[in-house]
Amino acid sequence: MMSFLVRYGVALITAFFTSFGLFCMHRFLSVPIFFSIMVFIFICLGIVHFFYIRLFDVKHNIGIISYVTWGAFVGLSILLEIPSIIYALMVCCFVVFFLLIYSAQYHTSEKQHIYKPIRRMIMMLLVFDAYAYLSTVFALILFFPVLPLWVWGILGVCIYVFITGLIWRLYFDVKGSSLLLWLLLVGVIMLELFWVFQFFPFGYLVSAFLLTWLWYILQLFLRFYLSTQGVIWKKQREFLLINGLLYVLMLVFIVRWI
Asked: Which of 35, 46, 47, 44 shows the shortest CA–CA distance to 16?
């Protein structure tokens, strides 16, 4: 019972600090306050990571995932202008960090019915992180056009490659060096797509969403290919067909009006 209360309390406190940190950043528009909150939250997440490593022997790096997610929420909240959406994002931040920290105890569970949903949740969280970071990159291209485009392209590709590595480490218990070639392939493909998207008249949120959608499908099929079963095309044809159709419909009926 005491162990449960400790885990619940740590998750609740972490979720409160992260969401309240976002609130303070938008309530007090000050550069010193912004960086002070960033440093404070990073220290708190580091302490939580050390606590879970020592207590539960967590294999997956919950610390890095927490840092990446916190940065994603901060970056996306800066880009939003509607107060109601910003407050909704703060609520999402609270829920996400509570579930992320509380579920860390189950990351080493050998019961697949417990571990698989948690792993899938973290994977989708990392996909959201990639979208948030790329939205920030596209916004910076618009706000700071002085820097050459290849600088932003390399930055965006590094984000995709890094998060791809985090996702694959959830499924493959291997060293990063053995996946380096495939990560480089992801980087090259995404760099080409990133360059193409610069010629589309989309906003930064829409561009990041469409590009992240393509990246998600790319890393997903490469992960299937690297698995022991490989890509089972009979099961994936419907998935590809639905995604392709939705992608085209979104471009035709939604994106064209934005």
From this structure: 44
Residue 54 CB contacts under 8 Å (≥ 6 apart), including other chains:
none
- Contact between residue 196 and residue 118 where contact means Cβ atoms under 8 Å apart: no
Q: Which of 177-181, 189-193, 215-219 has the lowest mean pLDDT?
A: 177-181
Closest CA to 47 of 28, 33, 66, 34: 66
Compute CA 82 distance to the chain's CA centroid, rounded to the nearest angstrom. Answer: 22
Q: Distance (Å, rounded) from C-alpha 152 to C-alpha 154? A: 5
Domain assignments of the chain as residue spans, ordered by start: 1-108, 114-258
- Where is pLDDT greater, at 59 or 241? 241
Tokens 């590009």 sit on residue: 211
What are the CA-CA distances from residue 48 to residues 6, 102, 163, 245 (Å)?
12, 11, 21, 43
Cα(162)–Cα(22) distance, integer angstroms: 24
* Contacts with 195 (C-beta within 8 Å, 6 or more apart), sequence order: 149, 153
pLDDT digits (tens, 9 = 90+) for 239-252: 888 988 988 888 88
Tell me, what amino acid is at 95? V
| pLDDT at residue number 72 | 94
> Radius of gyration (Cα) for the chain, nearest Å?
19
pLDDT, the chain, mean: 84
Rounded to 5 degrees, what angle do the CA atoms 159, 163, 168 make?
150
Euclidean distance between CA atoms 16 and 35, whole angstroms: 18
Beta-carbon contacts of residue 132 (< 8 Å; ≥ 6 apart): 72, 73, 75, 76, 208
- Going from the C-alpha of 234 to that of each of 181, 215, 219, 239, the distances in angstroms are 27, 21, 19, 10
